[in-house]
Amino acid sequence: MSVLLWLGLGLVFGWIAGMLAGHRAGRLTYLVLGGVGALTGGFLFSLFGGLGITGNGMLVAMAGSSLVLVLYLGISRRRT
């Protein structure tokens, strides 16, 4: 169940990031990257003893989404 919540949070954070970044890469790209980042952050959080979606878990999902999106934008800017 918590995997679906991580994914949902990642999609929301990806949507917000897409709005802030001006949709340079397309909305679907930001949604997918936000979901991947939140799942990755949530997985790492649970490996270190975190429990599901809590206040800290939401911050971890946001941090994971942000990190993946920043990495993607940094890499895509270098290509152009």
- Alpha-carbon Rg, integer: 12 Å
The beta-strand count equals 0
Domain module count: 1
Q: What percentage of residues falls in helices of 4 or more residues?
A: over 70%
Structural class: mainly alpha
Shape: elongated
Sheet with most strands = none
Ordered list of secondary-structure elements with their pairings:
Layout: H1 2-21, H2 27-47, H3 55-79
Helix pairs in contact: 1-2, 1-3, 2-3
Question: Can you give a write-up of this model?
Answer:
With 80 residues, the protein is mostly helical. It has one domain. The protein is built from 3 helices and no strands. It has helices at 2-21, 27-47, 55-79. α1 crosses α2, α1 (2-21) packs across α3 and α2 packs across α3 (55-79). The model has no long low-confidence stretch (mean pLDDT 77).
Question: How is this structure best summarized?
Answer:
This protein is mostly helical and 80 residues long. It contains three helices and no strands.
Which key features would you list for this structure?
80 residues, elongated, mainly alpha, 0% strand
